[in-house]
Prior knowledge:
Layout: E1 7-11, H1 16-27, E2 31-39, H2 53-63, E3 67-71, H3 77-90, E4 95-97, H4 104-117, E5 120-122, H5 130-139, E6 143-150, H6 165-173, E7 185-191, E8 201-210, E9 217-225
Parallel strand pairs: 1-2, 1-4, 2-3, 4-5
Antiparallel strand pairs: 6-7, 6-9, 8-9
Helix pairs in contact: 3-4
Amino acid sequence: MSAPGTPFVTSWSGGKDSALAFHRVRRAGGRPVAILNVLDETGARTRSHGLRPEVLRAQADALGVPLWTATASWAAYEAEFTALLARAAGAGATGAVFGDIDLQPHREWEEKVCAAAGLAPELPLWLEPRRTLVDELLGLGFRARIVAVREDALPVGLLGRELDAALVREIEALGADACGENGEYHTVLVDGPDFTRALSLAPGPLGVHHTGEGPLRVATLDFVLA
Length: 226
């Protein structure tokens, strides 16, 4: 973990893992400069989680931290994300925080784009036991709802449910990872220790999209601000 007072940005998905990573670095004394997200080419949704940008803005407002976004196709994603990191470096950030746990290809990509932008990558959750991380998250008072499930891994009926200890046991019993590290599920954060207020979200229609990383289909629930 970087020294107290170190300015940092966070790759912010809108879900639980990036929020826990942000929390750990901020709690250790890091100074957040911004949270970052590259939306799809239409600017209407985030990539993995399928969140509306207004949900991200509400999260940023609750954090008291600026939200910086870009739009990109998958082909242009790396260039746009690197540009956001370079903007962060220009604003004084020295580190970039990511919520990955043990996916080595993700870490290597993050190290590459950080090197290109002149930032030091930080992965505060790296190689920690999945269940330990979920238990920490819940114990700290984070509240998150399931916004996406990989159809080959979990039932669509889990969409919209709030993550708690019972649901984590249910997810594990179905053979999925407790944290959803392999994309089995994604969440939208509605409250946590870094929020000044909880988000009020209402579930909208169901949808389906492809991950962009193969033929896998992901079912999504369209949360809107209530």
